[in-house]
Amino acid sequence: MAQTTKERQIRREIDESFRPLFERYEADPSNAEGVPMAQLSERLLESSTLPRMRINAMLRRADADANNRITYGEFVVEMTRADDDTRRRMGIGRRFINRAVLTAVPGHRPRTVDSPDTFSPWGEQAEMESFSDAYDCRPPPIFIPLITAAEIAVFLYYALEPASRAKWPVTASSGCPMDSPLLYDPRKRWEAWRFLSYMLLHNGYIHLIFNCLVQLILGVLLELVHKLWRVGPVYLLGVVAGSLASSCFDPRIALVGASGGCYALIGAHFANVLLNWEEMQHDWLKNPVSFFGSGVFRLIVLLLLAGGDTGLAVYNRFFIDTRSQTSFAAHGGGFVAGLLIGVPLLRNIDVKQWERVMFWIFLVLYVLLMTAGIMFNIFCGNEGVDLCYGPPRPTPNSLLQFATRPPPVR
């Protein structure tokens, strides 16, 4: 079958880029059956921006006779059927420097090349075989421990401050200072800081302990890979999304607690699994460490955590007569924000073409939803809430009747 113009162009560029590398090895009689796969993998790792795992997988497919050696013919077949993005990252194309030839020169030290395997604005390198290689303490987790310490400090301040302690005594499930300027109060929507600062308040020490444990466990694991400049914005934007969602769907409910941020971390973990599934599943049954770091195990844990907390919240809200109820809107808003903003912000070990498309789709959806929530609060206010949802019912627990203690909502 005659080759197309594109196929001839691809073959010519493959010959220009890689033929000298194979000729150098084939000059040695011991390499008559092809270049040893391990040596070729190291050379290609130096000359391309593909991660080691992708290179090894490509070479295993190319090794048609399974002798752990790659002939130039086998290599050409594999590169010809590879997609354009893989060939581009292998350095094939006239607009790329022929790094493969340079690295074959004895004594030549290849320059460091920023890899697009991670989210491109950060320009980090990603030469790793599996997702577990991405964990490091440079820098160590900073944001999540600091935000947790801040929440504990604010809780202790209001619990020990004499006036607040007399008015709002702290128990296992109560004690939130409802007159605090940090509280999200739907009657004071114009005080915009409340859409974020409510995360520092908690309604009882059980509420505080649960949120701190969740964000420390989930947040530190994320921060070890994705670092504070990604995890911090995801957490804070999830907190804001939680209060915006609550203001739209639970428009007369006060809001306290860091659950919006915690659910943003859960959503971000789902985004992390979505982006790095292939890397997480690499040799995932090889040893216990690989299994516990796999995408399958992560999904099971996340579903159990989110499902268990949601089930408990449903029970508390609809089957227990309590003044403190869980805001599903805040939890849902945080989760959706963590998922949508996590895809554009979190580190992607190996970017694929469909993930580039998903990047923009999720980013646009996040911006549209946040804009809608902001517009609702700007143009509707309490009058708009009454118009959309009807006037408040005169119940003893109504938030708008502040003669008695208003019910905070997590």
UniProtKB/TrEMBL annotation:
Domain EF-hand positions? 50-85
Kindly give the Gene3D superfamilies that the UniProt entry links to this protein.
Rhomboid-like (1.20.1540.10)
Q: Which UniProt keywords apply?
A: Calcium, Membrane, Transmembrane, Transmembrane helix
Tell me where it resides: Membrane
Pfam families named among the record's database cross-references:
Rhomboid (PF01694)
According to the record, the segments passing through the membrane are 204-221, 253-277, 289-308, 328-346, 358-379
The entry lists its GO molecular-function terms as: calcium ion binding; serine-type endopeptidase activity
How this chain sits in the membrane, per its record, is: Multi-pass membrane protein
Give a yes or no for keyword Calcium in this entry: yes
Q: Does the keyword Methyltransferase apply?
A: no
Q: What is the top-level taxon of the source organism?
A: Eukaryota
Write down any Gene Ontology CC term. membrane
Q: Which family does it belong to?
A: Belongs to the peptidase S54 family.
Question: What's the protein name?
Answer: EF-hand domain-containing protein
What phylogenetic lineage does the species belong to?
Eukaryota, Metazoa, Spiralia, Lophotrochozoa, Platyhelminthes
